[in-house]
Design brief:
globular, Double-stranded beta-helix, 19 strands, binds N-oxalylglycine, four-stranded antiparallel β-sheet, single chain, 5 helices, binds manganese (II) ion
């Protein structure tokens, strides 16, 4: 009888500015030593990928707990709050509809560059996606290294933003629509939109390294500057935010499990309109107030 040879446990960098694949690793049967290595790999590579997983949602949730306190996005941010019975922290990102109703969030459109929950006081530390259904093409997810973005800035710009903050408006989603919890907010002026104020340069609590922290372009405002100066500085910062040489793109396969660190990355997703069903199971961990 032929027995498939077990791949040895290894951390294999993508060769791009971020990302590594963990080989020979079963997230449902991980030893403490393996978990420590995987967590180290996440700090070093910012995004990790585990391929060909075959795990239940409960096992996925257990694995997620190794990275921190699980905390799903608050309902006011979610178009479709769904809770799985055997894994209550797992939510669904999907374009699939059942009986005319979406089974998850975000449909099939493009998701612009962003950091998860930047528009809350405590943005998510980690996000994990487990690919349960993957369309034949499209729906790829790209990641950008925000340590590298900060390092790429001109000296003068870096000095200028060292003590500046950014308001991450919470009332409107990335498409400009109003979030369910903010129906009474009428303003279209970013200076007046509600949202938390975070430093433009944040320190990663585990690595001690500094990263550019932008959240999302739409609705951002730098307090203390005129609207024109704020827009000009944000445009400049965003021009360094996702330089091709600082990014890596995940092309999804069924069973892929990706973990990223929102404290030092941003991500975006390609549209996959008309390309078929896509269903990701998702976990997030509670983050700290950026400092
Ligand atoms: C997310 C997200 C991207 C994707 O879940 O936070 O941005 O590829 N998802 O579905
Ligand atoms: Mn996201």
């Amino acid at each position: 009888m032929l027995v498939a040879e077990k791949t040895a446990f290894a951390v294999v960098p993508t060769g791009a500015a971020l990302g590594a694949t963990i080989e020979g690793f079963d997230p449902a049967r991980a030893s403490a030593a393996e978990i420590a290595t995987v967590r180290r790999a996440l700090l070093d590579h910012l995004v990790i990928r585990i391929r060909d997983t075959d795990i239940t949602d409960a096992e996925f949730e257990n694995f997620g707990k190794k990275f921190g306190t699980l905390k799903p996005s608050p309902d006011f941010t979610r178009s479709r709050p769904v809770y799985l019975q055997d894994a209550p922290n797992v939510t669904i990102i999907s374009n699939v509809t059942e009986d005319g109703k979406p089974i998850g969030e975000h449909g099939d459109g493009e998701l612009h560059w962003h950091t998860d929950l930047a528009f809350t006081d405590e943005p998510s530390a980690h996000t994990m996606l487990l690919a349960r259904e993957v369309p034949p093409i499209g729906g790829n997810t790209s990641f950008a290294n925000m340590y590298a973005a900060l390092e790429a800035l001109p000296e003068t710009t870096r000095a200028r933003i060292a003590r500046l903050t950014c308001k991450h408006q919470a009332s409107h989603n990335a498409q400009g629509g109003r979030r369910p919890g903010y129906k009474d907010i009428e303003t279209e002026d970013v200076r007046e939109m509600p949202g938390p104020i975070h430093p433009l340069v944040r320190t990663h609590p585990d690595t001690g390294r500094q990263a550019l922290f932008l959240g999302r372009r739409f609705g951002a405002y730098i307090p203390g500057l005129t609207l024109e100066k704020s827009e000009a500085l944000l445009d400049e910062l965003w021009s360094y935010a996702a330089l091709p040489e600082h990014t890596w793109t995940q092309e999804w396969r069924l069973g892929d499990l990706i973990v990223w660190d929102n404290r030092c990355t941003m991500h975006r997703r390609d549209a996959f309109t008309g390309q078929g069903r896509r269903r990701m199971h998702r976990l997030t961990t509670l983050g700290e107030r950026p400092f």
